[in-house]
Design a protein that fits this description.
The complex is a heterodimer of chains A (about 150) and B (about 375).
Chain A lengths: L3 H12 L4 E3 L2 E3 L5 H10 L7 E9 L3 E10 L4 E11 L4 E3 L8 H12 L2 E3 L32
Parallel strand pairs in A: 2-5, 6-7
Antiparallel strand pairs in A: 1-2, 3-4, 4-5
Chain B lengths: L3 H9 L6 E6 L2 E2 L4 E2 L1 E7 L2 E8 L7 H5 L8 H5 L6 H16 L5 H30 L4 H21 L8 E2 L2 E2 L7 H23 L3 H7 L7 H6 L5 H5 L6 H4 L20 H25 L8 H8 L9 E9 L2 E9 L5 E7 L1 H5 L3 H5 L4 H11 L3 H5 L1
Antiparallel strand pairs in B: 1-4, 2-3, 4-5, 6-7, 8-9, 9-10
The chains are: A alpha/beta (about 150), B alpha+beta (about 375).
Catalytic activity (chain A): a quinone + NADH + 5 H(+)(in) = a quinol + NAD(+) + 4 H(+)(out)
Protein name (chain A): NADH-quinone oxidoreductase subunit C
Keywords (chain A): Cell membrane, Membrane, NAD, Quinone, Translocase, Transport, Ubiquinone
């Protein structure tokens, strides 16, 4: 597998974006993400055909979505991609059309963290019920007090 | 409407068919828990299917954010409650990766032995329940449970619990095995193939099983990769992707074993790949019990952390640890902020993601086949809903 530096260089020259490396992962601006994703999947030098995991983290100042990419054909990976977004208007382009495995995982991240994946074919809550208010995995979510007297 | 069956009906007869919406589950024995499928039927054929989940959701990931790193371990048992030890393994690997804890040799071997025994349990129970879904009520399950019981007795003697084992610690395992352990594993390694032969004699070439399972619920190769399907379901579609071979985590690089793959990617292949995988697991077990060295079962740092869990400080950062659990790739994505608790704890659950293609496999099939297609994916709702 190419080193993370080489992948960074290749993406930067091809798409003209600024990418930084943080703890062995690529920090990518969200605007170009679908193009970069389909490049990483289809380019024979990388062919990351398997999107293993999609999830998010609430860092209080911003939300971060993490993608773990592997290549089944070339048997290498992971390539870790991180995308940051604003907490109040959390929007990130969906990659379901590129990797189907994102379908349920993006729904899960939407349900529990409130990240809107633009272009997802069926963005509904998946674990919590329709009509539930809030997103439990956000750090400012107030958990119901189990011991309260009714 | 593009359904050819319907167009024929219009030309040939005056019988009208009506679309029927059926809600399969959540309270139904064939759903293996509380899982619901909203199915649209045209006669007997499925034309749409939407899985509905979350009935067993307890926000596992949020709960773990208030626990110390070690206190999460027993909760991982409850994800896929058939394979507690496989879950422990994956979580321990992820934390060890993050904290940089070494694992002594003997513990590595014990971990592999436990993980492979768990695989035997999972696959044998799955085969039993698949036959249940096919209508062979409880006879195969009973034989499967008889064999499982022997393994569970072994687990009870080693870990103190039959199902919720909580046996792994960071840097090793909780305690050493009893003196007769190796002997008993050897007995299982010798006995189990005979049981498998017996089972195969009844099932593998069974005409009813063949006609119900072959060419049902076909999952094409390309879709399987694209949808992130892992484990026996992926391998049944013909892709030899086994994380034990790819990552060689723990000490899997030392063992000789083959990765069985299917051809058609139908329910029958998924059944047969599991039978073959059990035989390979027995190969690994045999090599492991022959090579297992004496020595410590937990490293110094690990023992310290096991005694005083709150003293375990995990450096800032994030890590993703994955293993080949019996159902597929089980991954843990962990973020540490340097305190004694996980800042973020995410489970990449294989049976949850394998459900992505349920609709694709079921469209055009009969409603009775939906039950066995779901059975052949092998889901456990503790893990799907988390």
């Amino acid at each position: 597998m190419k080193t993370i530096e080489e992948i960074k260089q290749a993406i930067e020259t091809k798409f003209g974006v600024q990418i930084s490396i943080e703890n062995n992962s690529l920090l990518i601006p969200k605007e170009k993400w679908p193009e970069i994703a389909s490049f990483l999947k289809t380019d024979p030098e990388y062919s990351f055909d398997y999107l293993s995991s999609v999830t998010g983290t609430d860092y209080k100042d911003y939300l971060e979505v993490v993608y773990h990419l592997y290549s089944m054909g070339r048997e290498c990976g992971p390539l870790v991609i991180k995308i940051r977004t604003d907490r109040n208007a959390a929007q990130i382009p969906s990659v379901v059309s590129i990797w189907r495995s994102a379908e349920f995982q993006e729904r899960e991240a939407y349900d529990l963290l409130g990240i809107h994946f633009e272009g997802h074919p069926d963005l509904r809550r998946i674990f919590m019920w329709e009509g539930f208010v809030g997103h439990p995995l956000r750090k400012d979510y107030v958990t119901e007090d189990q011991d309260r007297k009714i | 409407m593009n359904c050819p069956y319907l167009q024929n009906m219009d030309q040939q007869s005056t019988l009208d068919t009506q679309r029927l919406e059926v809600s399969l589950g959540p309270q139904h024995p064939s759903t293996h828990g509380v899982f619901q499928m909203d199915v649209v039927l045209d006669g007997e054929q499925v034309i749409r299917l939407k899985p509905v989940m979350g009935y067993l959701h307890r926000n596992h990931e949020k709960l773990m954010e208030n626990m110390s790193w070690l206190a999460c371990m027993p909760y991982t048992d409850r994800l896929d409650y058939f394979c507690a030890l496989a879950n422990n393994f994956s979580y321990a690997l992820a934390v060890e990766k993050l904290a940089g804890i070494e694992v002594p040799e003997r513990a590595q071997y014990l971990r592999v032995i436990m993980a492979e025994l768990t695989r035997l349990i999972n696959h044998i129970v799955l085969v039993g329940f698949l036959l249940n879904d096919l209508g062979a009520f409880f006879t195969p399950v009973l034989y499967a449970f008889r064999e499982r019981e022997k393994l569970l007795d072994l687990f009870e003697d080693v870990t103190g619990s039959r199902m919720m084992c909580n046996y792994f610690r960071f840097g090793g395992v909780k305690r050493d095995v009893p003196p007769d352990f190796i002997l008993r594993v050897r007995e299982i390694v010798n006995q189990f193939p005979k049981f498998l032969d017996e089972l195969e004699e009844l099932l593998t070439h069974n005409e009813i099983l063949l006609s119900r399972c072959q060419n049902v619920g076909i999952l094409p190769k390309a879709l399987a990769v694209n949808a992130g399907i892992t484990g026996p379901v992926l391998r049944a579609s013909g892709i030899p992707y086994d994380i034990r071979k790819i990552d060689k985590y723990s000490i899997y690089g030392r063992f000789k074993f083959r990765v069985p793959v299917g051809e058609a990617g139908d329910v029958y292949d998924r059944y047969y790949v599991r039978i073959l995988e059990m035989r390979e697991s027995l190969q690994i077990l045999e090599q492991a019990i022959n090579e297992i060295p004496d020595g410590e079962v937990i490293s110094k740092a690990g023992a310290q952390a096991a005694k005083m869990p709150r003293t375990l400080k995990v450096p800032k950062g994030d890590a993703y640890g994955r293993t080949e659990a019996p159902k597929g790739e089980l991954g843990f994505y962990l973020v540490s902020d340097g305190s004694g608790k996980p800042y973020r704890y995410h489970v990449r659950a294989p049976s949850f993601i394998n459900l992505t293609v349920l609709e694709d496999m079921c469209i055009g099939q009969k409603v009775a086949d939906v039950i066995i297609i779901l059975g052949s994916i092998d889901i456990v709702l503790g893990e799907v809903d988390r």
